[in-house]
Write a structure and sequence with these properties.
Number of helices of chain A: 12
Order of helices and strands of chain A: EEEHEEHEHHHEHEHEEHEHEEHEHH
Strand content of chain B: under 5%
Strand order of the largest sheet of chain A: 6-7-8-3-9-10
Largest interface: A-B, 53 and 49 residues
Distance between the termini of chain B: 32 Å
Oligomer: heterodimer
Number of helices of chain B: 13
Order of helices and strands of chain B: HHHHHHHHHHHHH
Strand content of chain A: 25-35%
Shape of chain A: globular
Number of strands of chain B: 0
């Protein structure tokens, strides 16, 4: 059976202009040597921090951007050679987009987009009505889209994506801006939509670990334009089964450096997050034995332990294991660069 | 989801027969024209901005012409010019800068990604703008004619319709060309629109016959489709119009037809170039949100 998505040594470099026009363009490597294979019927996740290259990859696969190197195929068609045929088979929804026209109602906006895909009007209107009910927008059919809140607008965007019943659907951070209940409903529908027909494929980008873990058949972890690992969530987490994972809530670190703990014997990776009462340390240890050294170090730095728990591996831990930093730390570092 | 039956229907494969080719093109044109024809009418401020304000400018010229004892036909010329100004404003502010705004809103990427033709999108924009503006132009004509007691004597309805149609196709063809051009120029487009607005009022002869210019000035001004369109229409609806016309109506029809071909072909060429550039460089479809 033909692959739904395939990339071979895919790369993309952006030329960035300096402050002045005469400046020589700088280069930003957004994607580098990406090799992926997604089967039809698969719900595939791209997991990575902001700026990792997820959106660039989606743009290439949706024929909006040409690759700088390598090749990509969607439903067996080359993205650079058969973009028009690919466009008949795909759709995309991005988180936080504000597409459509504020003067049109929700139904009118969606109908307009359905016509660009050649949908029969009657079918389009029926699906719009039912999908709006599904996402809890049934009472907003005749509301102008300019009157919708960010969350409701995102629901409208999600309807736009499913409305055309594409063969491959690309969802770029689809639950961004949705409340907890709505996000849960959308995830459930996404899963069922893929399961219902084996020809359907869904590629989802997210930086919510739980979303990727809960939804995806397979996940590719991507950072700085490179795919670091690609497997089922359970297999990815199994990479850490020999390690011992601990979460320790402590009082403020009193200036103690994180490296102090990371360099202790038996400590593989350490990440730290500030909390209201102090800090939360997440440790990946070679074995339980290394914990005593960490506790001793904390005590000697006059840091109090408020809570300590041993926990199962999550995709966040896999990311930390692969990158060396948590996703939040990576995003924080990117924004201060 | 409350209703399991509806959910089951939504989840089931649709396998609908998708429109392709000319039918898809037509559907896209109609769908993209819809926000302009229906949506824009919902913003009631157009009555003030697009009818009342232009009427003030028209009135000012009418009073000046009457004060200096200009031929009475000039009053009719001014009302017709005022009505046609609506089309120029629409092309300049709602057509030319539209792709730039579509990009800012995030629509441009969705348009390119859909299986339709971008030319159909532009055509829909033009058609919608044309229909919506015709309503404004008609309102100005009727109001101006009633206020200033203008009488018309149409020499040939067929020619009048043909001139109007050709002028509109050429003008909106120019708007389609500008749409891609302004997108490539990005924010500088604002300055171009501002720069073009007033000189075109002057050189297109919105408020006086362009025969008053030297031949070459009028000839160069004829590149703007409204110049010849307006001149030919004035010749066709006012008894003394022919005497004040720049070229003969048949010559102006011929030139307008040529302008239609040139502008629409150039618009198609630039649109294709813009789409290729957008995909190659990845910047043109990125909004600044």
């Amino acid at each position: 059976m033909e692959l739904a998505i395939k990339t071979e040594h895919l790369g993309r470099i952006y030329k960035l202009r300096g402050g002045k026009k005469k400046d020589t363009p700088k280069q930003l490597v957004a994607l580098e040597d990406v090799n992926l294979e997604v089967q039809p019927g698969e719900l595939f996740g791209l997991l990575g921090p902001n700026g990792a290259g997820k959106t660039t990859l989606i743009k290439i696969l949706t024929t909006l951007l040409a690759p700088s190197s390598g090749r990509a195929w969607v439903t067996g068609l080359d993205v650079t050679q058969a973009p028009h045929k690919i466009r008949e088979r795909i759709n995309m929804v991005s988180g936080g987009e504000s597409s459509g026209y504020g003067l049109l109602t929700v139904r009118e906006n969606l109908w307009m987009f359905s016509q660009f895909y050649g949908m029969p009007s009657r079918l389009a209107n029926q699906r719009i009505k039912e999908l709006l009910e599904m996402v809890g927008l049934g009472d907003r059919v005749h509301t102008k889209s300019s009157d919708l809140s960010t969350g409701l607008r995102q629901k409208m965007n999600i309807v736009r994506g499913f409305m055309t019943d594409p063969q491959v659907l690309f969802l770029d951070e689809p639950t961004l801006g949705l409340d907890v209940g709505a996000a849960r409903d959308v995830r459930r529908f996404i899963r069922r939509w893929v399961d219902e027909d084996e020809r359907r494929t869904l590629l989802l980008t997210t930086h919510y670990m739980v979303e990727a873990d809960e939804l995806c058949d397979r996940v590719a972890i991507i950072n700085q334009g490179r795919v670091l690992a690609c497997d089922t969530p359970s297999n990815l987490k199994r990479r850490l089964q020999r390690e011992a994972l601990f979460r320790i809530e402590v009082s403020p670190l009193n200036g103690a450096r994180l490296e102090t703990f990371a360099q202790l014997p038996g400590v593989k990776k350490t990440t730290c997050q500030s909390t209201e009462s102090g800090a939360e340390l997440n440790l990946i240890l070679e074995s339980d034995d290394a914990l005593s050294g960490v506790i001793a170090a904390l005590t000697s730095n006059d840091i109090h332990i408020m809570n300590l728990e041993k926990r199962a591996a999550s995709l966040e831990d896999v990311f930390v294991d692969l990158v060396g930093r948590s996703m939040q730390e990576v995003e924080g570092a990117e924004s201060t660069d | 989801m409350q209703n399991p039956q509806i959910e089951a229907r939504l989840l089931a494969p649709t396998n609908y027969r998708r429109s392709r080719g000319a039918w898809l093109f037509l559907k896209t044109v109609v769908a993209r024209a819809y926000p302009r024809i229906i949506g824009q009418q919902r913003e009631k401020s157009w009555v003030f901005f697009d009818i009342f304000l232009p009427m003030l400018a028209v009135s000012a010229y009418v009073f000046v012409y009457r004060a200096i004892g200009a031929p009475e036909e000039y009053v009719g010329f001014v009302v017709m010019g005022g009505a046609m100004t609506a089309f120029w404003m629409n092309v300049l502010w709602s057509m030319s800068s539209q792709l730039y705004w579509e990009k800012e809103q995030g629509n441009l990427a969705l348009y390119i990604m859909a299986p339709n033709s971008m030319m159909a999108i532009l055509l829909g924009m033009a058609l919608g703008g044309m229909v919506a503006t015709s309503l404004r132009a008609l309102a100005i004509t009727l109001l101006g004619s009633w206020l200033f007691h203008i009488s018309y004597q149409v020499a040939s309805f067929t020619q009048l319709f043909l001139v109007f149609l050709l002028a509109m196709v050429a003008l909106y063809g120019m708007g389609m060309l500008f749409a891609s051009l302004f997108l490539l120029l990005s924010r500088e487009a604002w300055h171009l629109s501002n720069l073009a607005q007033e000189p075109v009022y002057l050189f297109s002869g919105f408020y006086f016959p362009i025969k008053n210019f030297q031949f070459w000035v009028a000839a160069i001004a004829s590149v703007i489709p409204l110049t010849l369109g307006l001149d030919a229409m004035r010749q066709l609806v006012f008894p003394s119009g022919a005497a004040l016309g720049f070229l003969s109506v048949s010559t102006e029809i011929l030139i307008l037809a040529l302008l239609c071909v040139v502008f629409v072909a150039a618009a198609k060429f630039l649109l294709d170039y813009m789409e290729r550039l957008a995909i190659r460089e990845g910047r043109l479809t990125e909004s600044r949100r």
